[in-house]
Amino acid sequence: MLRLFFFLLLVLAAASVAAFLAEQPGQVTIAWLGQRMDTSVAALVLIAVGLMLVTWVVAQVILRLAMALGFARQRAEQKRKEHGYETLNRAMAALASGEEREAKRLTGRAAALLPDEPLSHVMAAEAARLAGDEGLRREHLAKLAEREDTAFLGLRGQVEAARRQGRTGEMLTLLDRALTLRPKSRWARLSRLETLKLAGRWAEARDAIDPAVKAGAVGSDEAPRMKAVLGHCMAVEAEAAGQVDDARRLAHASHKDLRGFVPAAILDARLANLAGERAKAHRILKQTFVKRPHPDLVEAEAAIFKAETPQARLERLKALMPRGDVPGEAKLLLGVAEAEAGNEDAAHALLDPLTRAHDDSRAMAAMARAVEAIRGPDDPEARKWQDLERTTPVRSGFWQCDSCANMRANWTPLCPTCQAFDSLRWIGVGEPPVEPRAPALADTDEHVLLEGA
């Protein structure tokens, strides 16, 4: 009703204007480009109104066409996204079913359809990894790293790719960038610490422990041992560089903070002995032997007191023995020392129970050595024990990695097989072998981009 009213009002106004123009006739002369045209005012108004109407119609046509084209583009964009997400879903299903080639093809298509969708690059990187296409994986990770909202995710994938290829320098550069983005990231703190260890940058690794503890990446109960072992590594490095004072300070601090750590005790005792502090060196070795009997401690003690007789060495070894229940390793070492001092009965009393209780080549070897020391290597009983030594499996007397179970004769900071830090444990007589730890999720390659920070 209101529209009808306004329409009638408009018609009335137009009629009034037309009547006014009819009652007021006039002439209009137009001269343009050498031409002259005479017309009435009413005709001129009619022409103007006609031009305005044509302009309005043309504008409406152009506007409708633009709207139609925009809608078409919007519809095409919507269809492209729908197709992209459908392809992405199919790619996820292919990944889950282990179809590497199909997953790689589909994720590549999804990434092309959804170039601004981070998930498409995540899935494409994972598919490329499964397909063994490291170059394509790094390309998708780089695209993630370029975006402000997914930079950390891309950096994390790049770190893992660099780790698998052993590029520790690149890993540290990427981890520094990741920590700039997210300083409280547990993954970044722990990864940086582990990478510094892997690179043998002991001092930097020790400095990285406290920030890692603060971020919750390293337990406060783990930190003291880690610092002590790293301090020992720094002491070894300082001694090799001729920095004896620094080596002594670091070695003693490592032994003091981690009693029972054999490598640190031996280094601390040796440096103390070189400085003329033989009594201190003996005290260091005794403190460690009580906690962890080890043949290297006995050898280190013998190196300090080189001119001693077998009986004197025996008495000194007895002084090292722990009180109470004596471990099998200590009994084995003491039994050999008793035999070398000529005490056959005492040697048998210590070694016979070990040979009966433990099917271990070292126990047989110790008995063979004891009999040889007293009766000579050609004695029939000595040959019997020598034969048993050769036919009995070795079950002790080595360092074993608690991460991969690899066995070694000497301690090293990093396991040569799996590169785990401080993972070697001494296996003495009668001690069970270590149970390899299951690798943490952060140490594996599976779905690394989908983990939390």
UniProtKB/TrEMBL annotation:
Any matching Pfam family: HemY_N
Keyword Phosphoprotein found: no
Annotated TM spans: 43-71
Record carries keyword Cytoplasm: no
Ranges of residues in domain HemY N-terminal: 26-132
Subcellular localization: Membrane
GO CC terms: membrane
Keyword vocabulary terms for this entry: Membrane, Transmembrane, Transmembrane helix
Record protein name field: HemY protein
